[in-house]
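Example 9 (inverse folding). The structure is encoded as follows.
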């Protein structure tokens, strides 16, 4: 019995250690931040969708969710479908714009890094003096 308990304790400690390593990985933390940011971004997008739907409702003169027709005893709410399609399109456009802006930002950063790498560093006074001495000795 004592050996079995010892094995269980070692297994639990190993599992706990593996879990600690798993949870402390950078990509897990990045994913958690992404989920939180995505949730916050969802609220912003929903506000934009509400603005667009209000404007479209003003132009059309009705709310899409109210559009429906009845066949015998069945009511078909096609307005909700139209509302969801427009919501999807507005969300897709907003995401496209955010991704495009982020890509441009990353491209600009990459170009700056490439320029820094490509730029020849300024030579110190000692190096310049040594090069002059070298050139004089060649003559």
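The amino acid assigned to each position is listed next.
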């Amino acid at each position: 019995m004592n050996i079995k308990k010892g094995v269980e304790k070692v297994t639990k400690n190993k599992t706990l250690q593996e879990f600690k390593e798993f949870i402390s990985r950078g990509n897990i933390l990045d994913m958690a931040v992404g989920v939180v940011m995505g949730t916050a971004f969802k609220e912003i997008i929903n506000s934009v969708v509400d603005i667009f739907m209000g404007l479209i409702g003003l132009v059309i003169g009705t709310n899409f969710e109210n559009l429906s027709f009845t066949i015998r005893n069945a009511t078909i709410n096609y307005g909700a479908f139209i509302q969801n399609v427009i919501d999807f399109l507005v969300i897709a456009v907003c995401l496209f714009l955010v991704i495009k802006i982020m890509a441009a930002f990353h491209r600009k950063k990459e170009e700056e890094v490439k320029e820094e790498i490509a730029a020849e560093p300024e030579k110190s006074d000692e190096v310049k003096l040594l090069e002059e001495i070298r050139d004089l000795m060649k003559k």
